[in-house]
Design a protein that fits this description.
Shape: globular
Strand content: 25-35%
Distance between the termini: 18 Å
Oligomer: single chain
Radius of gyration: 27 Å
Number of domains: 2
């Protein structure tokens, strides 16, 4: 390597490091969470966190106090991430037919289509939406797994319209007659309406610290923020590297003189 190439090598490496440091993260990357609210007479509770990196999402869903049994077995609760709509949960005013239950169809304008099915294992696509075997079982359970999410799901998270909905009402607290509860579901007529209607709901909100903050904590020391600080720091590294490279070249030249 000649003297000119030795002189340029270190600054070039420093510039490459600065370029990598300033590369933006994917827009949907970050941590999302929600405390799930109660619908249709539900007395249960739930929380959900979703940590996203690219198309990978680490999901932690915890629910308790839901209906426990169904036809002499554990009550199967299906849950989904909906999106591409208003990004909100329904209210009693959305009970269009006035039967006392806000069904999934009646709530669709609020929280939109199914983008991801939060199953206990296997398929997480909308195709698994009513797979009772892959749903949560019983009144209290946890789903914790890392899944691959679609482009549509990533865009919905970025737009703030992703809503987690847990389905399956407790007939003892739904506040409707057995006839209404057991009437054909709007999603699958072979299932009862109460079993497929939303019980818990919450909009996923991105954490404030999920993205690089505009400025650091107030320590009483003035600091540069964001990309400006990185550029300034990068410039300093380049200058320092260049100075070091110049010094080494000159020292070697003097030694060889």
């Amino acid at each position: 390597m000649n003297k000119k190439m030795r002189f340029l090598a270190v600054p070039a490496l420093a510039l490459g490091a600065v370029a990598m440091a300033s590369s933006p993260a994917l827009a949907a990357d970050g941590s999302y969470s929600s405390t799930l609210g109660q619908l249709n007479g539900t007395t249960g509770t739930g929380t959900v966190t979703v940590d996203v990196t690219g198309d990978q999402a680490k999901v932690n869903l915890q629910v308790s106090g839901l209906a426990e049994t169904f036809m002499d077995g554990p009550y199967p609760h299906v849950q989904h991430v909906h999106g591409e709509a208003m990004g909100t949960c329904p209210t009693p005013a959305d009970d269009a037919d006035g039967n006392g239950i806000v069904s999934t169809t009646e709530a669709a304008d609020r929280y939109g289509n199914i983008l991801t099915t939060l199953t206990t294992s296997g398929d997480t696509s909308p195709a698994a939406a009513l797979n009772l075997e892959l749903g949560g079982q019983g009144g209290s359970y946890t789903i914790e797994r890392t899944i691959t999410i679609s482009d549509a799901q990533q865009k919905s998270l970025e737009a703030g319209t992703s809503v987690v909905v847990v389905h399956g009402l407790d007939p003892a607290t739904a506040g409707v007659s057995e006839e209404v509860f057991s009437s054909p579901s709007d999603l699958d007529p072979e299932l009862p309406l109460g079993a497929t209607s939303p019980a818990l709901c919450g909009t996923l909100v991105k954490g404030q610290m999920a993205a690089m903050p505009e400025g650091g904590a107030d320590t009483g020391v003035a600091t540069e923020n964001s990309s400006t600080g990185m550029i300034a720091l990068g410039g300093g590294l380049v200058l320092a590297a260049a100075a070091g490279g110049t010094f080494m070249v000159r020292r070697r030249a003097a030694h060889n003189a």
